[in-house]
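Subject: design request, 269 residues
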């Protein structure tokens, strides 16, 4: 049986089925990584599922580790723990088991940290538009905490979409960065304003619809364009696909090893 080589040291519930987890290795060290990369978390099939999740067929053999990739939200300068921002998929194999854990519980954490969704191919003097849905915000939090965003010589804008205002994790942290750095803009947006108990004063609608309203133009004083802007996309694949199409019409190109471009993306499923 594979050893559970890490421990959950902290858990912050943002909303039901949405939480920030801090995980520490036990007896080994976190290797160097770049902000934007991901690690793999696992739990055995025998681990209990949390209340509120769908029942599932038994995993066989029960000690088989169910593993999934998660973007790191903590700073690349922080080596004691890794932080992850995770949403529970009720029918899922891993997340209902992860959400049953409490601080002190053991789990498996892959030692390899990898991924190409970093700022390695974004020139320092280019403006950055960071678009995300739900937990797709995690890599941007890591980039901010690693001091890669607010020290740039250009504008940075985060547009984060969620269903409700209470699902907008890291809201306070991002609002503080916006307050402290004049070149940083944080635009939270929600898709279900009618469910809000207090009227939501901010943006509403899907990221792809909001993009067409040019949300950064007024705040930046100019409209982002591929001549001076790179766009990062993370989260829901439907948002990513629509955004690639819309950005393509504006002249942006997806970055690949062979053809450098201004669109960088990470699909979660
Ligand atoms: C590189 C990479 C990084 C990732 N980083 C994160 C992260 O930081 N946070 C995070 O919550 N997830 C992240 N994911 C998704 C994660 O790996 C799992 O797929 C997810 O947690 C579901 O696992 P599960 O075993 O519970 O569900 P599964 O049994 O694997 O079911 C998968 C289904 O769940 C749905 N799903 C998967 N991810 C999500 C999601 N985030 N939101 C809504 N529905 C989803 C899709 O319909 C998918 O087909 C990432 C995926 C990749 C490839």
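Subject: RE: design request

Done. Sequence follows.
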């Amino acid at each position: 049986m594979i050893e559970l080589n890490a421990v959950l040291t902290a858990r912050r519930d943002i909303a039901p089925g949405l939480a920030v987890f801090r995980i520490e290795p036990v007896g080994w060290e976190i290797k160097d990584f770049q902000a934007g990369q991901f690690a793999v978390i696992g739990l055995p099939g025998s681990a209990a599922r949390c209340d509120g999740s769908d029942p599932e067929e038994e995993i066989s053999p029960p000690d088989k580790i169910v593993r999934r990739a998660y973007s790191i939200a903590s700073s690349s300068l922080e080596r004691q723990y890794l932080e992850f921002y995770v949403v529970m998929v009720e029918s899922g194999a891993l997340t209902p088991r992860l959400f049953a854990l409490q601080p002190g519980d053991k789990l498996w954490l892959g030692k390899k940290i990898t991924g190409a969704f970093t700022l390695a191919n974004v020139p320092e003097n280019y403006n950055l538009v960071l678009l995300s849905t739900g937990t797709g915000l995690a890599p941007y939090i890591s980039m901010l905490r690693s001091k890669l965003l607010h020290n740039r010589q250009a504008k940075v804008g985060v547009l984060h979409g969620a269903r409700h205002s209470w699902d907008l994790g890291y809201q306070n942290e991002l609002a503080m960065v916006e307050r402290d750095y004049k070149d940083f803009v944080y635009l939270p947006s929600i898709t279900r304003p009618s469910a809000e108990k207090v009227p939501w004063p901010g943006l509403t609608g899907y990221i792809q619809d909001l993009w067409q309203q040019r949300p950064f133009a007024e705040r930046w004083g100019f409209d982002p364009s591929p001549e001076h802007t790179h766009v990062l996309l993370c989260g829901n694949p439907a948002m990513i696909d629509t955004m690639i199409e819309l950005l393509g019409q504006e002249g942006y190109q997806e970055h690949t090893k062979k053809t450098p471009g201004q669109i960088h993306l990470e699909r979660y499923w």
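The mean pLDDT is 96.
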